[in-house]
Design a protein that fits this description.
It contains five helices and 23 strands. The protein is of the alpha+beta class and 344 residues long. The chain folds into two domains: 8-197, no CATH class; 201-324, Cyclophilin-like (Cyclophilin). The strands form five sheets. Strands 7-6-9-4-1-12-11 form a seven-stranded antiparallel beta sheet, with no helix packed on it. The protein has a seven-stranded mixed beta barrel with strand order 15-22-19-20-17-16-23. Strand 13 (181-182) and strand 14 (186-187) form a beta hairpin. Helix 1 runs parallel beside helix 5 (321-343). It is globular. The chain starts with 7 loop residues before the first strand and ends with a helix.
């Protein structure tokens, strides 16, 4: 991968900051026992596809853009891919397409507006943004000032290094047939593989547990038969929902039965605090928690969680572990097929 003939240090400069833009990769693993969350890209599907379309490694750093995007200038030629939500991106005031490779020239200006639908977009650059790792990852975790640029969201004047190269890989016929091919050396992802972000009611598939026994049976059924509205409380730590309250079984040891002995939590776990309103935990959530978890969103549907925004509705569908694994394997097949075609 990353077979580039000439590498020149170039910079992407933040000319105007967005609402919450950070450098992210696949995340920081191996430190949760020390209280450090995984972090990384919230929408891992969009993030990964962006890198693969460029022939990058899956873990190469990209910029995660949230709700309102930045303006970025490029000092040297490169190629980029924009994935995820539509922020009406413009290059030199001309529309930039999503999910495909785009050539960038020196002094080009890339502008993002507000998200039309969804919540997050990803900007990948050929070869990945060149940023030092902290604890084995570039992922920005702002609460502890880890990763990214000094552990902060991107600000006006920030300069991010990337490798400039005029060399690009030739496409082949199998790529054209399987994933669509745009002229001018652009690689484009087939529409059938692009997530549908423009929907009001979002299905999230879940595996029940690990503590559904703490809840009344009626509440488990209520979770699966009612929709829940996304509140304004949305960030990388979690998404609070509003709907039919979930009730706990009476317990002689715990008030209402909602509290448990603190144990590990993960991205996608659905905690239920005392008010009975579910909270879907995000990639920057705490590493342990003392609220019962009624279910967990399956890995393949976490990108949907990343794109949720205020006033959308979600409904939950229970699947088995075996079904979740099969769905995950299909997603991995997309990655490996795309990876093989572009780099083969």
């Amino acid at each position: 991968m990353n077979n580039q003939s000439v590498d020149v240090c170039a910079t992407a400069t933040i000319e105007k900051a967005g609402l919450y833009d950070t450098l992210q990769d696949n995340g920081r693993y191996g430190y949760r026992s020390k209280g450090v969350p995984v972090s990384g890209a919230m929408d891992n599907y969009s993030y990964t596809i962006g890198n693969l379309l460029l022939g990058n490694y899956r873990n190469d750093p990209s910029i995660e853009i949230t709700m309102v995007g930045p303006t970025i200038s490029f000092s040297q030629p490169t190629e980029i891919v924009i994935t995820g939500a539509d922020f009406r991106a413009m290059i030199n005031e001309k529309p930039a397409k999503l999910w495909q490779r785009i050539k960038i020239q020196a002094e080009d200006i890339l502008t993002f507006s507000q998200a039309k639908q969804g919540c997050r977009a990803y900007l990948a650059v050929k070869g990945g943004f060149q940023v030092p790792q902290v604890l084995g990852s570039v992922a920005t975790y702002t609460k502890a000032k880890l990763g990214g640029l000094a552990g902060k969201r991107l600000q006006v004047g920030d300069k991010i290094c990337y490798r400039s190269s005029n060399n690009s890989k030739a496409s082949n016929n199998s790529f054209k047939k399987a994933f669509n091919y745009q002229e001018r050396n652009y690689h484009s992802l087939s529409y059938k593989l692009r997530p549908n972000i423009n929907i009001q009611d979002v299905e999230l598939r879940v595996i029940l547990g690990p503590q559904q026994q703490y809840f009344a049976e009626e509440s488990v059924q209520a979770l699966l038969s009612n929709s829940y509205q996304v509140t304004k409380d949305i960030d990388r730590m979690g998404i609070r929902l509003q709907g039919k309250p979930l009730e706990f079984k009476a317990s002689p040891h715990q008030a209402g039965g909602q509290e448990i002995i603190t144990d590990a939590v993960a991205y996608g776990a659905i905690q239920v605090p005392a008010n009975g309103q579910p909270v879907i935990l995000g990639v920057d959530s705490q590493t342990t928690g003392g609220y019962a978890k009624i279910a967990c969103v399956i890995s393949a549907d976490l990108p949907k969680v990343a794109q949720l925004r205020h006033l959308q509705h979600v409904y939950f569908t229970a699947v088995s572990i075996e079904e979740a694994q099969a769905i995950y394997k299909k997603q991995e097949l997309i990655y490996s097929t795309l990876e093989g075609i572009i780099n083969g």
